[in-house]
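Ticket #4471: structure export looks truncated?
Reporter: QA, pipeline team
Priority: medium

Steps to reproduce: submit the single chain below to the structure queue and open the exported record.
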Amino acid sequence: MALFSKRRETVDQVIDRLVTQHRTDMLEQELRKFDPSSLQDKEKQTWHFYWGVAAFRRGDRPEAFRRFTEAYSACPASDEIRFSLAQEYEARGNPDKMIDLFRGCQFPKISSRHLLTASRYCYLWQRIDDAVHFLSSIFDAYFTLGTADDHFVYIRGLPFFGETWSYYLCYSILSGDLHEIEDVTRRAKAKLSDYDF
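Actual output as written to the record:
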């Protein structure tokens, strides 16, 4: 007879196990074993996030929207959930709500890749000023690091400098104003090491 009962897996452990076993199709079934109201902080956020992801992965966007809306109500401080709900608003054709939610996300709580994605969504909705806004945190990170070296920035979770700069150039051309991209380029040449393009 065992002296100790087997401890329940955490939500993260369940997700890790399913990913390792290539059984993400079982995600909803496994998440149903938890009572989200009994979970605390990070585990609660993780449950709600993956509950929405599960609906999204099976192509049920109305259910994904409902779940991410519920998740945002339950975990309003989660940038990951906020970002996912913003994407669902984009899919519903509501760019104003999308941008409002994206602007509430903070880097580095969300990754630079998320910022680039938010920027692209804004571009698709012809919201060029908003598209540029989401690049500013990435440029700030380059200038804090003091380099444009691809390897150096990549291992620190940033896109290549040239990629971000190209986004900015595209938006500048579309807006018909090259002054800001010229300023960023001059600043990069003066302040960043390994600036090579």
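Status: closed, not a bug. The export was complete when the record was re-opened. Leaving a note from the reviewer for reference: The first helix runs from residue 11 to 20.
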